[in-house]
Amino acid sequence: MVSNRSSVRTAMEESLQIQRLEEAPSARDFESRIESTNVPAVFNGCVKDWKAFSKWNPSNGGLDYLQERVGLCVVEAMLSSSAPVFYGDLRSHERVPLPFSAFIGLCKQRMRHSEDGSGACFESEQRGLLEPVSEYDREPYEDAPQQIYLAQVPIMNTENEERVQLESLREDIQTPVFLEDKVLASTNLWMNNAQARSSTHYDPHHNLLCIVSGCKQVVLWPPSASAMLYPMPIYGEASNHSSIPLENPDFSNYPRAQCLMEYSQKVILHAGDALFIPEGWFHQVDSDDLTIAVNFWWRSNIVSNMSEHMDAYYLRIILRRLTDKEMNRVLPKSSLAEMENKKKHTCVVLNNGGVDQNDNDLDQACERKDLKGKELEQRTMSHELEPLAIHALHELVSLVHHRVNAAELRQPVQSTSTTDSAASVKDEFTKVVRANSFSLEDDPVAKIIWALQPCTFRNVFLAMVKNFPRTLEALILHLLSPVGAEVLTCKFEEMDQQITEEDRNRFYQVFYGAFDDQFAAMDAILNGKELFALQAYKNVLDKYLGVDWGGPKPGV
What is the DSSP string of 176-190? Predict the structure, then answer.
């Protein structure tokens, strides 16, 4: 069966749903309809015609058969104290040489104790050792045989033929017809004597996992969900593994993982079934007792066709795309209905927030700042602006003057130099801005601007130019955070799309004309915008490459 583990059906795109096919496709159909989509697929009964399907079956003398065929061979086994969970990181397990016959002996003991009802208890667990096995007597696995897992033991390997340990089993399996045209990188045996779980990881190759005996449950996530899986650092040895511990995940350390299962799909594979796992898809595999599987790995067309001299370009394009996506996540595009709700909410908040008191405070602040002493209602052209624009204008001017006053109050009394005072105020502004640089919810200036429709936005800033030029200057040069700069330029772009070129030119001429140094204003906006993009870029490196740069991470 295939079931969607998500409680929110819309969280999983229809195009990523796993198919289950009753008949194996042709090579052409597989490549055009399945492999090209990079979405997993299950093929029921795909390998039931293999010799291995009947000859390797433990319930039908398969263990004796395997011992006779390759019993003298020494294979490399995974030994892990964290069993039944087997982590891919080399720090969490060790690779040990193991006679294949010794592993078959462990499997036979498991079968005997399962049949006589004694459960998972091994003779070795009762006696503390296995019967002597040639010179390998008293090896580390003897006291805890359930900690042994035959993982990725080569049956065929085109890249390293010397590593092939089970080549004699090759005649018992056959390449599925839809893979006959592929250049296979390797074919491997996977075999466990006790229940086992692999850590969540992705493979750098396409993978066909074939169940010869037993049962496996596979939970899969698309590459787009990798940020929620906290991949290990890209420069690390286990960079294709998730860093989230499976036994007891701590969501305080991995907050993005809380909605992880909403993006997962679960597949149950029985003997004879095969699962196509495309490259980059994270998967976690649970295996029943005495499960035997074979997998095929091959390079995808995408990777095969990537020219090495283009790698740097591909990297820059992908990082830029992910950075843009991260920026859009912090500043999601709003629908018209959402914008109307924002309008209503803003009006309610402003009406209930003491606008009259703000007016009085602003009158006093404006007098101190030599803003010509006119009444606030006259300066804001209330007879020309819509109510929302007036409220937004009041709020913006209020915020600036509140920060100015707060900054001035924090200055030492003995400071008498105007230049020093201005520099100190600017430093105080910078501290405030940096405290909430990248989160829209924590930046009141950005929130006010973000809620404005393009026409209202234009009118608000034209009113600021005419009536509060020094306040506008302080806002742009000192109070504009990175997210505020990104919001401002987004609104510029929205406005540009709705007015004529002549009106655009006139607006920017008036807007930048309010500044004593127009280039300083442009630099402040562009520098803030680039800082916002830089933080988004760092978030991308953290989420997808496991590179932690520190600093604020909005909504991670």
Answer: -GGGTTS-EEEEEEE
Find the angle CA(289)-CA(186)-CA(62) to the nearest 5 degrees: 35
**Close Cβ partners of 327 (under 8 Å, ≥ 6 residues apart):** 486, 532, 533, 536
CA angle 346, 349, 352 (to 5 degrees): 145
Token pair for residue 109?
A: 């003991």
What SS3 class is residue 452?
Answer: coil
Interval 274-330: pLDDT, tens: 999 999 999 999 999 999 999 999 999 888 888 899 999 999 999 999 999 999 988
**Residue 388 to residue 382: CA distance in whole angstroms:** 11
Residue 257 three-state SS: helix
Which helix (H) or strand (E) segment holds residue 51: the answer is helix 51-55
Specify the higher pLDDT residue, 155 or 146.
155
| DSSP code of residue 76 | E
Packing angle, helices 62-70 and 100-115, rounded to 10: 170
Domain boundaries, the chain: 8-115+145-305, 307-331+387-398+438-551
Whether the Cβ atoms of residue 287 and residue 216 lie closer than 8 Å to each other: yes
Per the structure block, which two tokens stand in for 258? 């809380």
Q: Do 240 and 207 meet the contact criterion of CB atoms below 8 Å apart?
A: no
Q: Which of 360, 355, 363 has its CA nearest to residue 391?
A: 355
3-state secondary structure 490-536: HHHHHHHHHCCHHHHHHHHHHHHHCCCCHHHHHHHHHHHHHHHHHHH
Residue 536, amino acid: A
Collapsing DSSP states into helix, strand and coil, what is residue 147?
helix
CB 453, CB 345: distance < 8 Å? no
Secondary structure class of 189 (helix, strand, coil): strand
CATH number of 8-115+145-305: 2.60.120.10
In the block, tokens 């006589």 appear at: 116
- The reported pTM is 0.75
- 84 upstream amide cis, omega within 30 of 0: yes
- Is residue 209 within 8 Å of residue 152, measured between CB atoms? no
